[in-house]
Structure formats: structure tokens, C-alpha cells
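Human: We require from you a standard protein entry with sequence in single-letter code and fold as C-alpha cells, and nothing else.

Assistant:
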Amino acid sequence: MKNISLRTLRIFELAATSGSYSRAAEVLDLSQPAVSMQIRQLEDEVGVPLFRKQARHVEVTDAGRVLLAHARDILARVRVAEDAMASLQGVFSGQLHLGVISPANYFAPMLMQAFRAQYPDVRMKLTVGKRDDLIAALQEHRIDVVIAGFPPAHAEVEAEEFARHPHCIVARPDHRLAGKRGIPWSAMRDEPFVFREPGSATRQFLEYLLQSQQLQVNVTTELQGNETIKQAVMAGMGVSFMSAHTFQQELRAGQMAVLDVEEMPKMLDWCLLHRRDTVLSGVNALFRSFVLAQGAEVIDCRLE
């Protein structure tokens, strides 16, 4: 494998990630035959097939998946080195690929814009997904850093807290409990509740709280996604438990109200996650420093 170049690895990684030679050619401004030739030469070099051709795409073989993991690692380290060398010359450029869980999507653009106001030459890419999927992408060098809650103990990532993450019970502004103070949890017993879908972290958090209160509520509706939940609450279908970051616009517009339930809001932590085996440098290190120093202020949200 002495003759494998970084260019060849980039072509292979793009083809493997997109599942398409033509897509890789388009991104790299090459012809499809040129990409096919590079892949054939790479397969000759490693001595095993890396792709299986399907009707409309290509599929990575077992050997291809092994090489893909190493290719992503190598390319990520080269990019980090390039960013680090550029920063030593006072040039802060390059690309940052940020992953966030869905509640963070409501403030991620503000955070990105505040960062780019200080470093305008940095290109930014945002991926929204489930925590476990984002952590897997982080570990596979497909994402640079992630904003989420604390990761599972077995994940090989570092987590640094930078802000609080409030969760509240919300209702329509004309709800009978809106505006009342110190509402006991027992008042929630007969309220129609709109629940998130099974497996949702927000739902798991609420079920934990209800269990600690030894309270069973009236689950009348089960919906998927924050936007659908908000529409249901505003339509009067019931109350719900949500991340405060997800309903800031509706709160300012007077379309939703936070119920003042005892011992609420409940707090989690927002964390910046990065790989444990990689020292952040260049753009990634700049973003980490920015988030830890200014992130809490940028993403601060109101509760009434």
C-alpha cells in the first residue's frame, strides 16, 4: 500500500460515503471514468474488491468498510494538521462540521453565526440527528464536534458542559392553569398529555420525572417531533413536556405558556462532545474555546 495518495483516499471516501461514483466525481469536479479508474487502481493496490456494483449505486464491501474507517481517520488528521499550521500563521479558515441533536437545532444557527462573526473565513456545516447516530459519526470522523447531552459511559468521547438545558411543561396561553403559581404535580394527573414518540430522550426524561413523583398521567396523544408537538399544544390537544429551546418563538408570540409546576423547570446540561483520541486544534479548537466561553450567553432562553 505504498502508492496510495491522499487524493485517492479522498476519492474513495467520497464514493463510499455517497454510494456513487458519479456523486464523488461531481463533488471533486472529475469525470466519472476518472473516479472509476482511481478506485480500480486502489483495489489493485490493496488486493481486494472495495465496492460491489448495484443497479443505481455502489456498496462498500467488508474490506472497503475497514479501509473506510482508516481513510476517514487519516483525512481527518490531515485536515486538523492543515488547520493547525494555518492558525500558526494567523489564518483561521477551514471547515467545521457540527452535529447537534434536534432541540439544539433551534439555537445552532445563532451559535454558528456568532462564531463566524469572529472567524468569517471558517466554513460551517450542520448535521441534525439522534445522539447515538451523531456519536457514531463523531467516532468515525464524519463529524468534528457534537452538541448534545452527556454521552453514554461506554462512548469514547469527551464531554464538556457549557450551558443549562431547561425542560418545562407547556400549554396554550388560555389553559386553566396558565398564570397560576406553584402548581402541584398532582394537578397534572387528569390533564390530557401529548407525549413524544417512544425512544425520544425527552419522553424518557419525562417518564423518569413522573416515576419519581409516583404519578400516572392521561396520555391522550403520541406524536413525533418538536414541531408537531408544538402544533398540538397550540391547538389545545393537551399539555406537553418540552425543551425550552424548542418553543422560544411561540413563547415570545404569546402562542404558548409555561406552566409553573413545582420544582420546574428541570435542568439537563448542554455539552460539547469531541473524540477522546484526538487533540482539538485549528478551527475545532477555536470553536471549543468559543462555545465554552460564550455559548451559554448566546443560547440563553426565556421561560416566561
Q: What stands out?
A: The mean pLDDT is 89. The CA atoms of residues 98 and 230 lie 26 Å apart.
